[in-house]
Write a structure and sequence with these properties.
single chain, about 5% strand
């Protein structure tokens, strides 16, 4: 599952919640401050991925005539090009490695800036962070589907894309995430 910007606030809250509830981590800043820094780190990672996507798109657009002439599959070409350019842009395309790298960045920042303190092995705390990310990513699809089902059965008909629809969907989605223990 691909990490998306709209997931960041929820994953950051889940990581913060899990760190606060962790017996071997001492919290030295507020939950909001920790969550804000985690969101910042994750957003930077997503931006790198977006920049890579834009570069790949630009490259493929410059070769559009060749792509059409050879009747090449654009999606496959996009993915192959993205794999070749990923290292150049500092993007890890393997989700488990990417989540591990993000967890390491979060851990390093929170520890070095004295947001948290611990006296156990770094990997134990890193595993808590990775577990939070993995747990959210595996459970968010179910929460998303449940929120869509609820909104379909809503008394008043809502038009997708409107502010009302988005506000109600986000509220229902957040309720589902809370109900499932994801945030």
């Amino acid at each position: 599952m691909r990490l998306k910007q709209n997931h960041v606030q929820y994953i950051a809250r889940k990581i913060t919640k899990d760190l606060v509830n962790c017996d071997f981590v001492e919290i030295r800043k507020t939950k909001d401050e920790i969550t804000a820094q985690i969101e910042k780190i994750m957003t930077e990672d997503i931006k790198k991925d977006s920049v890579l996507d834009e570069a790949v798109t630009k490259l493929l657009e410059s070769s559009e005539e060749d792509i059409e002439f050879y009747k090449a599959d654009y999606r496959q070409l996009f993915w192959m090009t993205k794999k070749r350019m990923a290292n150049e842009y500092g993007v890890n395309l393997n989700n488990s490695e990417r989540f591990s790298d993000i967890a390491h960045q979060i851990l390093d920042f929170l520890y070095e800036e004295d947001y948290i303190h611990f006296e156990v092995n770094d990997n134990q705390v890193k595993n808590v962070i990775i577990g939070s990310i993995d747990g959210f990513m595996s459970g968010f699809d179910d929460a998303d589907s449940a929120a869509y089902e609820k909104i379909k059965n809503y008394q008043r008909k809502l038009i997708p894309g409107t502010d009302d629809y988005n506000d109600i969907f986000n509220r229902l989605y957040e309720e589902e995430l809370i109900r499932r223990g994801l945030i």
